[in-house]
Design goal:
This protein is mostly helical and about 500 residues long. It is about 70% helix and about 0% strand. The chain has helices at about 80-85, 90-100, 105-195, 195-210, 220-280, 305-395, 395-410, 420-485. It is rod-shaped, with a radius of gyration of 69 Å. It is found in: Cytoplasm, Cytoskeleton, Cilium axoneme. Keywords: Cell projection, Cilium, Coiled coil, Cytoplasm, Flagellum. This is Tektin.
Length: about 500
């Protein structure tokens, strides 16, 4: 069975005027008793001849004087003056007196009948001419209305096609812009991920540098650069995160505008199909039928102005979203380049600080090694000098013994021989001299031994400082600079 394409979408039957009989086929006012529906109903109908009931002709109806010779029954007898006079003379007399018309009345009656006939014929001719004129006018009006409706449908199809093409063009542009913005979002996400390795390396460098000991725990330019680099990386991450949130929101707005355009295009495609089918219908198309009360049903929800305004608003909204997306892509590209430049500058400054600090530590290490070498040499010399001093002290023991032995031996001289002579004085002076020399040598030996201990302490300090500097240099050059030999960002961020 043929179905209208709009029967499943308009649902006009729910709001139609309720009529008796079948709900979809009405129009009984146009039906005629003729088998051909295009013939109009006139003031007369074709009379169908119906035969009378058969009735035998009796003698009471036919006079015998007028019956044919071949007729087997009596002829019909009509009442007249003669026959009536024979049956009822009084009634026949009264009828002859009171039921007769004059010739003038007869003539007048004929003239009146002729005039009435002429009048009826003239009126019938007028009715026929007016009916023909009305049929022509209605046919022309109907044809003109149908042509005008077809023209309006054609104009409507043109308008729908125009707006559908505009919407389709805008949808293609919006989809392309959304794809570009999606690529930008991926670049921002990649840039955000690429900031994690430098941040991890900077934090790990700070952690490694905490392993320095004693005097090497210096808040130097390297540490300041690392702290600046960490702050810069976190700031860049925050900026990129905010930009990523804006891009995500803009993509949602673009998808909403895209859905609006697709919905409008779908509706226009459906309306275009219905209007195209309506534009192709004619008086001989299949599937046309009566729909009673459809002209009273008004399902419209917009006017031509609001209809075109709705599509124009959606296109303007899409254009606005595309402009925002384009600006956001430009901002994202600028921010990515700015972040890349900032990160690279901080990375380079920190590496330069590491190199300068390493050079300073190498120079300090070299000087420390030189001083250690000199200290070790001095310790060796002091040790030899101490040995010499000890030997000198030991060497003074025999002369002291000789002098004291001489004095002790001379103390046994008898009597007057115990003379304070020059020999005695010289021996006493010699003993005192030797004692002073030994005391002086002992003080020097003690001083040398104290200085030897001080040199050993200095040597230990130098060795400890040298070890600290070697460890700090190892931390800066091997651990930290080993992590920072290559910039851990791929070509996503251009620098």
């Amino acid at each position: 069975m043929w179905r209208n394409p709009w029967s499943s979408t308009t649902h006009a039957t729910h709001n139609m005027e309720q009529i008796s009989g079948p709900p979809a086929r009405t129009g009984t006012c146009y039906q005629t008793p003729r088998s051909h529906p295009w013939r109009p109903t006139m003031g007369y109908e074709a009379v169908q001849v119906t035969p009378l009931h058969e009735q035998p002709i009796t003698n009471a109806l036919v006079a015998s004087s007028y019956s044919p010779s071949a007729m087997c029954s009596d002829p019909v007898t009509f009442p007249n003056l003669v026959t009536g006079f024979e049956r009822n003379p009084q009634h026949a007399a009264r009828a002859a007196l009171y039921t007769r018309y004059t010739p003038n009345e007869w003539t007048t009656s004929n003239v009146t009948t002729y005039a009435e006939a002429d009048k009826n014929r003239n009126y019938a001719e007028k009715v026929r001419s007016e009916a023909v004129r009305l049929m022509r006018e209605t046919d022309e009006k109907t044809s003109q209305g149908q042509r005008d409706a077809a023209r309006r449908l054609g104009e409507r199809i043109t308008d729908i096609t125009f707006w559908r093409n505009e919407l389709t063009t805008e949808l293609e542009k919006l989809i392309a812009e959304s794809a570009q913005l999606t690529d930008t979002k991926r670049n921002v996400q990649k840039a955000l991920q690429d900031l994690e390795p430098p941040l991890h390396i900077a934090q790990e460098c700070l952690y490694h540098r905490e392993g320095r000991k004693s005097i090497e725990l210096v808040h130097d330019h390297v540490e300041k650069s690392l702290l600046v680099e960490v702050d810069n990386l976190r700031s860049c991450q925050e900026k990129l995160s905010q930009l990523l949130a804006r891009i995500t929101k803009q993509l949602a707005d673009c998808r909403a505008a895209q859905h609006s355009l697709e919905d409008d295009i779908s509706h226009k495609e459906s309306a275009l199909g219905i209007d195209s089918l309506c534009h192709q219908l004619n008086n001989y198309s299949r599937g046309i039928n009566y729909y009673g009360g459809i002209e009273k049903y008004d399902p419209t929800v917009s006017t031509p102005g609001t209809w075109s305004g709705s599509s124009s608003t959606r296109i303007n909204n899409s254009h606005s979203e595309r402009s925002k997306s384009c600006q956001l892509r430009s901002d994202a590209e600028s921010l990515i380049n700015a972040v890349a430049t900032s990160v690279w500058d901080c990375w380079s400054n920190t590496n330069n600080a590491f190199n300068n600090r390493s050079s300073e530590m190498l120079e300090a290490k070299s000087k420390m090694q030189l001083h250690l070498h000199k200290t070790q040499q001095e310790i060796f010399d002091v040790e030899k000098h101490i040995e010499l001093l000890r030997k000198a002290v030991n060497d003074k023991s025999n002369p002291m013994k000789v002098a004291q032995t001489r004095l002790e031996a001379r103390a046994h001289r008898p009597g007057i021989e115990m003379c304070r002579d020059n020999a005695h004085l010289r021996l006493v002076e010699e003993v005192c001299t030797i004692q002073d020399s030994v005391s002086t040598l002992h003080r020097k030996l003690q001083e040398a031994e104290a200085q030897h201990q001080q040199l050993l302490k200095t040597k230990s300090q130098l060795e400890n400082n040298l070890k600290l500097k070697v460890d700090a240099l190892f931390i800066d050059r091997e651990k930290c600079m080993g992590l920072r030999r290559s910039f851990p960002v791929n070509n996503t961020i251009k620098y």
